[in-house]
Amino acid sequence: MTDRLRLLLAGSLLLPTFATAGVAAAQPGGVKPTTRQEFPSDPALSVPALAALRGSTSSELADVVSRFAADQQALQRRYDAPDSRSQRTRMRAFWEQWRKQLAASDFDKLSQEGKVDYVLLDNHLRYQLELMEREDRQLAEVAPLLPFGDQLLALQETRRDLVTVNAQQSARLLANLTKQVDSLRQALESSAAPSRAAASDSSRAARPAAPRVSRTVANRAAERLDVLRNTVGVWYRYYNGYDPLFSWWVSNPYQKLDESLRRYAQTIRQRLVGIQTPAVVASGNAPSGQGGGGGGAPGAGATAGARNAAQANEPIIGDPIGAEGLAMDLRHAMIPYTADELIAIAEREYAFSLAEAKKAAREMGLGDDWKAAMERVKNTYVEPGKQIDLIRDLANEADAFFAKHDWITIPALAREDWRMEMLSPERQRVSPFFLGGESILVSYPTNDMTDEEKAMSLRGNNPHFSRAVVFHELNPGHHLQGFMTARYNSHRRLFNTPFWNEGAALYWEMFLWDRDFHVTPEDRLGALAWRMHRSARIVFSLSFHLGKMTPEECIEYLVDKVPFERANSEAEVRRSFNGSYSPIYQAAYMLGGLQLRALYKELVMSGKMKDREFHDAIYRGGPMPIAMVRARLAKVPLTRSGAAPWRFAEQLPEPRPFVRR
User: On the CB side of 602, how many CA atoms lie within 13 Å of its CA?
Assistant: First the structure.
């Protein structure tokens, strides 16, 4: 550890000491070091009885949903000029026709599982059409800055239509578009700095007036420019080198247009958005559809990682969708509450977590100063290089804990097949905590991070914080979800929602809290840090989209309410609003978990189902809004419009305060 990092970590706190006597000394609960080999899997256990694989779904519409998903994907691959007129016209017609066909089917003759799929598919189709209307309005707002957009997209469209390219005409078009782009850029530069634009009144008069748009719309336009530039790059590389005449005519005009588009995007970001050091986005070097995401092989998402690294120094803009947009998205998620009502639910849940955090602080001799207690917890990190051992041991501890109880089926292969990778420094700037799914992606300092970044990562990934969410990412959380979704009712992957996948993973955190998995005050604070975080996510994300909070206010709210490093709080807000997640995604963790808690009370605490039966049924039923999980398991009457609104928050079991036993 460098002297500067040592001082940085000390600050107003006691300087932490690394655990040097093995990982177990640093772990809560005295967890012993382990290896994967200590939990060998009998090969015979990983092969299921083949008879049990037949008839894994009882829905008459399973093949219908699968066919729709395949056709939708085929069309989206075919019409791959993003948001072009042809693409939007074709997809709108596709969804409308599918909805008409679905409405013509005999709903009353379907089984409950068939009715569930009917409602889910109709809900999906309706939402796609509604979403397209919202996107139409957003595209219209950026059109004044991008009047040439349709012409650029038409290049890719004609390629997909297999129209023979006319190289000379293409070169002329690119040259004309370059002039148009340059003229728009110069108009922006002139309007933003009139003193520098006074050289020639006649030249200024020939330029178009700079459009007046909001900062949000300007940021959206800059992002759209990156997409347009990438699309033109894909079109160009299709012909270049394979068609000598095309290369002869088009190479130079293309290079000029590409540079012109890059400079125009930079000008928009600088002059209208306020980004003084904008990211340099390469033109179309990634295959269509490439991007980063949780899971996957080492290096996955490198393109997104580079963009995230550049974004780390940019102002956070976001694109709020307003009360009407939130209502539409919540209706699709089958959540019968307004955004303001959900914020009130989150504040109630936060109050419980705050009371429990103060209780733990008192046990640590710090009175009600829960923030001081959290600071002490954050200074229990393991030394660099040892985090992978810690995560391994915590995962094995959780695995052994679940193996002792009959709460859920975790197949032998699901215990065996998960992997571990490291998050790159670039991705850690936006995702400062580990991620999970097919693999668990560990976040911890690397040698080329700054001292501030190292301190943030060490403290934010301490053993107590990590212990509370390893099983959220692995089994029985995201890893088991993906494992089961690929094997049961896989047609329902189309209906995946964060209220199901993130909600279920968060549900397990609350489930283990109720069963005294966290006994020491330090472990309880680790669990409460995340529980407070999920409550705060509802408040700040919905408030932002309602126009009640700015991104800066969201960061300050997190710093005050959640015991994260300021840099971690900024990264949280940045990734919430940079377009990587849907507007209600961050609210879905806690709300989906609460829905499952209400359903657990209705079906398990009432004696109608056993724990294992309940949990297995959720995972084997496939992803969907939790209201439809309830419709399946509780046999709720369904119409073509779905089930009656489920006010789950009024049916929640009381949160269970910790009582030492």
Answer: 21
Let me know: does 128 contact 169? Beta carbons within 8 Å.
no
pTM, two decimal places: 0.88
Q: Residues 86-93: contacts with CB within 8 Å, 24+ apart?
A: 86/157, 87/157, 88/132, 88/135, 88/136, 91/128, 91/132, 92/129, 92/132
Residues 137 and 160 both lie in one domain: no
Range of the domain at 430: 10-40+327-638
Cβ neighbors of 264 (< 8 A, separation 6 or more) are: 181, 182, 184, 185, 225
> Which residues are registered as beta bridge partners of 439?
419
Predicted confidence band at 202 (pLDDT cuts at 50, 70, 90)?
Answer: very low
Mean pLDDT of the chain: 88
Strand partners, 642: 639
Does 513 map to a domain? yes
| Same domain membership, residue 153 and residue 137 | no
In this structure, what token pair is assigned to residue 80? 């791959």
CA-based nearest residue to 98, from 73, 122, 134, 133: 122
Do 503 and 550 share a structural domain?
yes
Per-residue confidence band for 642, with pLDDT thresholds at 50, 70 and 90:
very high
Q: Is 380 in the same domain as 483?
A: yes
Quick: pLDDT tens for 424-456: 888 887 777 888 888 999 989 888 888 888 888
Summarised one tens digit per residue, pLDDT across range 233-264 is: 999 999 999 999 999 999 999 999 999 999 99
pLDDT at residue 329 tops 90? yes
Q: pLDDT tens digits for 453-485? A: 888 889 889 999 999 999 999 999 999 999 999
Last residue of a domain, one of 93, 125, 142: 142
> Can you tell me the distance from the alpha carbon of 610 to that of 557, in angstroms, rounded to the nearest whole number?
40
The answer to whether residues 92 and 164 belong to one domain is no
The dihedral over CA atoms of 631, 632, 635, 640, expressed in degrees to the nearest 10, equals: 60
- Both 71 and 199 in one domain: the answer is no
**Do 487 and 526 share a structural domain?**
yes
- 390, 26 in Cβ contact below 8 A? yes
Indicate the number of domains in the chain: 3
E runs forming strands in 152-254: none
What was the pLDDT predicted at 63?
Answer: 96
Residue 456 domain-assigned (yes or no): yes
- Of 142, 171, 188, which residue constitutes the final position of a domain? 142
297 is a domain residue: no
Q: Which residues contact 83 (CB under 8 A, 6 or more apart)?
A: 135, 139, 153, 227
In this structure, what is the dihedral angle of CA atoms 99, 100, 103, 104, given to the nearest 10 degrees?
A: -140
Residue pair 370/577 in contact by the 8 Å Cβ criterion: no
Q: Report the pLDDT averaged over residues 561-577.
A: 88
Q: Is 356 contained in some domain? A: yes
Q: Identify the band that residue 306 occupies on the pLDDT scale cut at 50, 70 and 90.
A: very low
User: Distance between CA 640 and CA 326 in Å, rounded?
Assistant: 23
Residue whose tokens read 């107590």:
464
d(CA 159, CA 240): 13
pLDDT digits (tens, 9 = 90+) for 602-625: 999 999 999 999 999 999 999 999
Q: Read off the pLDDT of residues 373-406 as tens digits, 9 standing for 90 and up.
A: 999 999 999 999 899 999 999 999 999 999 999 9
**Cβ neighbours around 376 below 10 Å, total:** 21
Structure tokens at 344: 């009130």
Same domain, 553 and 432: yes
Distance of CA 258 to the CA centre of its chain: 31
- Angle, helices 149-160 vs 85-103, to 10°: value is 70
Contact 280, 226 (CB under 8 A): no
For residue 296, the model assigns a pLDDT of: 31
